[in-house]
Amino acid sequence: WIDQGRPVYLPVGSPTKDSILQAAMGAAAAAGQLESLTFLLDLGVSYLYGIGSACRAGKWGAARLLLTRSLDAASAAMAPPLSDALAWAITGGQSELCESMIALGCEIDQRHMQAMKHTPADVPGRGAVRELLLPLAARKPN
């Protein structure tokens, strides 16, 4: 980060540094900059800060890259950003990407139920992510 011509080094875990990296993820995703996205993902910046931006901007390659790298960190916290991204992918007619997002949503729900010691039989047809995605999935392109 440059401030008045001098580099400013921020400590690891600094809220300012984190917000800069998160903003960089969103900007790179919206611009479809795959190399920058890969670099930021390798630094540990969450895909959550880019998936919605990529889909809103119609940068489907960037969205696919982020989605591919997201499964390792799948958690229920992903539900709102994933739902937003799915809505944009539907609007953009990205059927294959929609299917991948729905599959990720199901995986997130499965992991959440396992972590909470539930089984699908305990919670028939219910899950935080599934509840957000299914109404959108009904609208997905063929």
Compact summary:
Helix content is 64%, strand content 3%.
Number of H- or I-type helical stretches: 7
Major beta-sheet overview: 2 strands, antiparallel
Order of helices and strands: EEHHHHHHH
Q: What's the overall geometry? A: globular
**Amount of helix:** 55-70%
Instruction: Please state the average pLDDT score.
Output: 74
Strand order within the widest beta sheet = 1-2
Number of strands: 2
C-alpha termini separation: 45 Å
Radius of gyration: 17 Å
- Show unreliable segments: 122-126
Beta-strand fraction estimate: under 5%
What class, by secondary structure content? mainly alpha
Notes on the structure:
This protein is 64% helix and 3% strand. The protein has seven helices and two strands. It is globular. It has 142 residues and is mainly alpha-helical. It folds into two domains: 1-72, no CATH class; 74-142.
Key features of this structure:
142 residues, mainly alpha, two-stranded antiparallel sheet, 7 helices, 2 strands, globular
SSE map:
Layout: E1 2-3, E2 6-7, H1 15-31, H2 34-43, H3 48-56, H4 60-70, H5 79-91, H6 95-115, H7 128-137
Antiparallel strand pairs: 1-2
Helix pairs in contact: 1-2, 1-3, 2-4, 3-4, 3-5, 4-6, 5-6, 5-7, 6-7
